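tool=predict chain=A
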Amino acid sequence: MKLVNQTKLVAILLVFLLLVSGCASSSSTKNSSSQETNKEDASKPKSGGELTYALATSPDSLDPARSGLAVAVRAFRTIFDSLVVQAPDNTIKPWLATAWTVSNDGKSYTFKLRNDVRFQDGTPFNAAAVKYSFDRILDPKTQAKNAVALLKPYQSSEVIDDYTIKINLATPSASFLSNLSQAMLGIVSPTAAEKYGDQFSKNPVGTGPYKFVSWSENADIVVQKNKDYHWGPANVENKGAPYLDKITFKIIPEEATRIGSVQSGQVLAAETVPPQNIAALKNDSKTQLLKVNTIGLPYTLFFNQRKGPWNDVKVRQAVQLAVDVDSIVKTLYLGTYERAWSPISPGILGYDKSLEGETKANIKKANQILDELGYKKGSDGIRVKDGKPFTLKYVDGSPNREKRNDIAVIVQQQLKKIGIKVEINITQDVATVIYKNADYDLYGNSQVNSDPNALSAIYHTRTDAEEAVFKGLTGGSDPELDQWLEQGTIELDPAKREDIYKKVQQKIIKDAWIIPVYVFPYTVAASKEVKGITFDSLGYPLFNDVNIER
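tool=predict ok
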């Protein structure tokens, strides 16, 4: 009996040990699994919170069709999506459009659209909405700005069915798909656009990851999470609703205040870091510095050729020789900005590197040209011809974005050396002074763009109808230049396009249509708590992946 009992006891003990061992193993597995889950949770972006993001200037409009400013795009890109997206390698990927075909003659594009998208006001996204958005840009009542040039050579749209649209062009266009990826051709809610009319810019509605909340003029713009969003583009990790509950874009023009607000914690991120602050921010343990070079048309001084003497190439060349751009860029930007040499920036198809170093300041030669043209220096050093002092009206906008007002002052000092009196007009109403009245001799501007076809909107001869809507930046006309620009638009062979646009760049510089100044690096100072700020192919910030780590 004892032996049987002992055998039973051993068996019981073995079962007990197995059970204990099994429990321990199970517990160990659970702990390991729990630790892995905790690690995943720790690395997963946190949802919630508000990002405060300081802008350097105030947007002109939150209606993509009516905006002409890059700063506006930084805000309204959160609200509006596009048919396609340009990936970091510059290939074009689907977005609101899932696929497309191009006709043999290159003049028609047929897009298949997503069928699961709604605008933020509940209106269905469909082919009719795409047609409405593009037709609206061409409608004179809209008073569209940069969007008109981007949409060219658009003629019409045909709604094939709810989720298929055919877009017809006047000519083939090598830049059309790339242009469609830009925020200024974002798709708007037809319901909201009709409801608000001219006030749509203050009540924007799109299909984007954030919904518009409010815009307090010259103070802030507020957008909040679009919880229904699930169609993010290829250039973001998070295709669904954004992590942030809200973004408040605070408008802080004064440089020191804007950057100081990040360092003090009043805002979490701020754009356009002044050159003098970059070194200090790099060494700040609480702050990160993000930087990306924008592409498009660099900051450029444009001559107004509508009137004399600026319709004389020799006068323009004299001024081009007198402006010491190297000195301006080194003095104001302390090595943080690159000098521009061409009408387009590096990174764009066809950029002509051979222009670098070709244009150098030469006061002696500039004076010689003006002497030969009959401009005689008076006792005060200012040149006179036909009894009129030689003056140049230099217009720039307010506030002093990227130290552009300071450029005006330096140019004023430099041109005095060749006997030209520069009158500076710093205005808050650039729209009227430049684009309505063309009341300037020299004016500076830049443009973010992805294709050299952007040159057409600036340098191709404008029609009277176009000038009636808003004045172009040069007022110039050159048949040879027009021909090359037209060829560049329709040429589909990249190598041939490069050759065409190199000739365009060389002629613009040789004939002194402009004085290129700098390539703008978009910089952001942000608290290290802010994670996931990325940039699109043009250098605009994206907020789909942004989260705040407390």
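The two ends are 70 Å apart (CA to CA). Confidence is low (pLDDT under 50) at residues 1-40.
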